[in-house]
Amino acid sequence: MERGQIAQLLEKYWQVETTVEEEKMLEEYFRGTDVPLEWESYRDIFSFYERERGVKPGEGLEERIMEVVRPRPRLRGAWWSAAAVIVLGLGLSLYQRDKPAMKDTYDDPQQALAAVQKALLIASRNMHKGLHPLK
Amino acid sequence: MKDKLYRLALRLLLNGHDAEDVVQEVMIRLWSRREEWGQWQSLEAYCMTAVKNSCLDRLRKRQLRSVGEDGAWDVNSHDKDPHEKMIAKETYMQIRKCMDELPQHQQMVIQLREVEGFSYNEIAEVLGISLDQVKVNLFRARNAIKKSITQTESSWKEDR
């Protein structure tokens, strides 16, 4: 950019009439190497702001914020599920122990097969009925 | 956004540790009100205002306790600085001293405009002042810094 234009922009800058874009142009100009001597102090001011823009908080800050903000796994729910599994397991093993040993109910294998098939059919029909409202 | 909040807090509090505390406080408060985010015009403006208020509050308490803070800038944050060579350390300190001595509103306006590139409207919203007040403060601050730096540099040249 020409020196005359920069002088105009600077004048506007001190009068608080520049836009953000024009201020960026000034900053860009003063970042260059061919700044005349009488404008050196202005270059210092613009580099000061540019340097301030690089200031950042310590890295620990983000971690500390995330620590509070991060959703935690629902531990209470997990504990209840674990407790339920243990109680169920205990109950089942007690039930199994008290049950008499299994006995054969059918002498004829054909009859036994038919009974099993019938039981499975009823179970499957009920399953279909049960799942129907979900669809 | 976190960095902008930090820089505003640092400008006002001049202490990296306190500035981080304020940002943490504001971010956590922001999170706890996340259901309301949709109703806000600008999340950033809201946070900047919250940081400003929290800092001014702290400064008031500091004055009450009348305990002088050491005013130590967070030196670590300047460690890896690509612009180090562009500006001499004494000049940098000179401008910063001048900024530190400006009235609070001028400091904040300069910070939001020159460092963060906010529009006049955004600055007015964050600080809760009128557009005219933004411009008046910016005018005074810019010219104070210009005066301070040109005077110092011409006195250096006379010394040589």
Descriptive tags:
heterodimer; A: 135 residues; mainly alpha; 6 helices; 0% strand; B: 160 residues; Rna Polymerase Sigma Factor, Chain: A; Arc Repressor Mutant, subunit A; 2 domains
Structural write-up:
The complex is a heterodimer of chains A (135) and B (160). Chain A is an all-alpha fold. Among the domains of chain A are: 3-52, no CATH class; 106-135. Helices cover 70% and strands 0% of the residues of chain A. Chain A has helices at residues 3-14, 20-31, 40-52, 60-69, 75-98, 109-131. Residues 67-72 and 74-80 of chain B have low confidence and may be disordered. Chain B folds into two domains: 1-79, Rna Polymerase Sigma Factor, Chain: A (Orthogonal Bundle); 81-160, Arc Repressor Mutant, subunit A (Orthogonal Bundle). Helix content of chain B is 71%, strand content 0%. Chain B has helices at residues 2-13, 16-32, 43-65, 89-101, 104-115, 120-127, 131-159. Chain B has 160 residues and is mainly alpha-helical.
Please specify the SSE layout and strand pairing.
The complex is a heterodimer of chains A (135) and B (160).
Chain A: H1 3-14, H2 20-31, H3 40-52, H4 60-69, H5 75-98, H6 109-131
Helix pairs in contact in A: 1-2, 2-3
Chain B: H1 2-13, H2 16-32, H3 43-65, H4 89-101, H5 104-115, H6 120-127, H7 131-159
Helix pairs in contact in B: 1-2, 1-3, 1-5, 2-3, 3-6, 4-7, 5-7, 6-7
